[in-house]
Design goal:
The protein is an alpha/beta fold. The protein is built from twelve helices and 18 strands.
């Protein structure tokens, strides 16, 4: 049975198009109003930053400096003479302000975990112990409410890291993303940065397992040994797969071992979560056995093996300065002094935070972790580099991020003082030359309840004014 055809005249078609255009315009206007932190378009006009103190990080501090931005990158930086370049740029005067490169959170689940108690908002873990083919990037939620909060305190890029579930060992590959974009594709700076491994516990206190619990202690030790053997078997299988593929002997593609091929060529590092000295020693042995480019994540005991890490050129990603000591006989400030100890020993390091659902809402406090390290012996210049240039170097993006230099991305922070000081305010943020709105859930709630107080004060003063009349 044939269906009747819908016929429309030219006038009806024109009216329909007008209505659709009006509806689209209304929808767009409502969306922009409802989402004040919507990502801006790519930088179109050149900008000339003038009058600010430019903290290049990789070089000298430039007082009353100028910086020219074009198409999302820094094209020139210097003293006031830089401002004499062709007058085809919009001038942004920042006199009396300080400009720093955006901070980099080198260990995070920002965008992967929103509300820890709500399972649907947590996409950090894959099922099973061996998941090298899991990619953190594709799980990223660009609409996370925590992203604008973190960005408003100067953290403009993060390493999104997959996590280990119960029994997890090889968790997948991390991705470096900027904290602005409509989609995870927009946010991506490096889709694959490193392969991540989480070691099982390797230090057990016998005092916690007196008889009859000593059998439980033996059971835990055997369980850890089995997991370490499973981890080694995975690397052995991946190495065998690589060799077979090179000789043309593979009959099928294995996505797990394909994801591990770059680590054997040292084109991609392996980040191993290792806090205890036994874990760090195991990680060093694993890296030496399979020829891996190792990065230690956590490293609470790294100062105990500082000379070894320095000689083998193994960097350490410190996952938080604001931590308690790991042992009963450790000094209270062991974690506070870790960065200074590694710096003095010549170990490459950067300062990050713990990659878990609890720490994610506090990623904005990254500058204060570095500030605490300064209070416990770390040089202030080194502390600033520990959240800018050093993570960029460890993550392989120092050609784009980490300092204010020509050719690098124009992603920077404008403050009214030292950003490692909690009293300092981040006043403006630029990502690839685009100024980003600092409004976020916290600022909106602040404005909302300030209005409530204003209304309450007005209501309370109204009867008093009437009585006076």
């Amino acid at each position: 049975m044939s269906r009747p055809k819908l016929r429309m005249g030219k006038r009806s078609t024109a009216r329909l198009r007008q209505r659709l255009a009006a509806a689209l315009a209304l929808s767009t206007a409502f969306h922009v109003h409802a989402v004040p932190d919507a990502p801006p378009p790519p930088q179109a006009e050149a900008l000339l930053i003038t009058g600010a103190t430019l903290h290049t990080v990789s070089g000298d501090v430039i007082v009353n400096g100028s910086m020219r931005l074009e198409k999302g990158r820094i094209v020139a930086i210097g003293g006031p003479e830089t401002a004499t370049e062709p007058r085809d740029a919009r001038v942004v005067s920042l006199r009396g302000k300080h400009v720093y490169p955006g901070f980099i959170s080198a260990n995070s689940v920002l965008g992967l975990s929103e509300v820890g108690a709500v399972h649907a908002t947590d996409d950090t873990v894959e099922v099973g112990p061996i998941n090298p083919n899991a990619r953190a990037l594709v799980a990223l939620n660009p609409d996370s409410e925590i992203i604008p909060v973190t960005r408003a305190n100067g953290v403009l890029a993060e390493l999104a890291v997959p996590q280990a579930g119960p029994g997890g060992l090889i968790t997948g590959t991390s991705a470096l993303v900027q904290l602005d974009g409509w989609t995870w594709e927009d946010m991506s700076l490096s889709p694959v940065v490193a392969l991540h491994v989480e070691l099982p516990p390797m230090r057990f206190n016998p005092a916690l397992f007196p008889p009859p619990l000593d059998a439980r202690l033996d059971e835990l030790r055997k369980a850890s040994a089995r997991r370490l053997r499973l981890l080694e078997t995975a690397f052995e299988d991946a190495a065998a797969y690589r060799l077979a593929k090179a000789n043309g002997e593979t009959r099928r593609t294995d996505a797990r071992w394909e994801a591990m091929l770059p680590v054997f060529d040292k084109t991609s590092p392996v980040f191993i979560d290792a806090d205890d000295i036994a874990q760090i020693r195991y990680a060093l042995g694993l890296a030496e056995r399979f020829g891996l480019r190792l990065v230690i994540v956590g490293g609470s005991d790294a100062w105990r093996l500082a000379s070894v890490l320095r000689d083998r050129q193994v960097p350490v990603v410190i996952t938080g300065v604001h931590q308690l000591p790991g042992r009963r006989d450790d000094a209270y400030d062991t974690a506070f002094r870790l960065a200074a100890r590694l710096s003095q020993a010549g170990v490459r390091f950067c300062i990050a935070r713990g990659a878990n659902g609890f720490d994610t809402p506090h990623d904005r406090n990254l500058p204060y972790e570095a500030g605490t390290a300064v209070a416990h012996g770390l040089d202030p210049v080194e502390a600033l580099r520990a959240i800018t240039l050093y993570p960029a170097q460890i993550l392989g993006v120092a050609d784009r991020l980490g300092s204010l230099e020509p050719g690098k991305l124009a992603s920077f922070v404008v403050t009214d003082g030292d950003p490692l000081d909690i009293r300092t305010h981040v006043e403006r943020v630029f990502i690839q030359g685009r100024e980003i709105d600092l409004a976020n859930r916290q600022t909106r709630l602040n404005d909302k309840y300030r209005e409530r107080l204003r209304q309450q004060a007005a209501a309370a003063s109204a009867p008093a004014a009437s009585a006076a009349r």
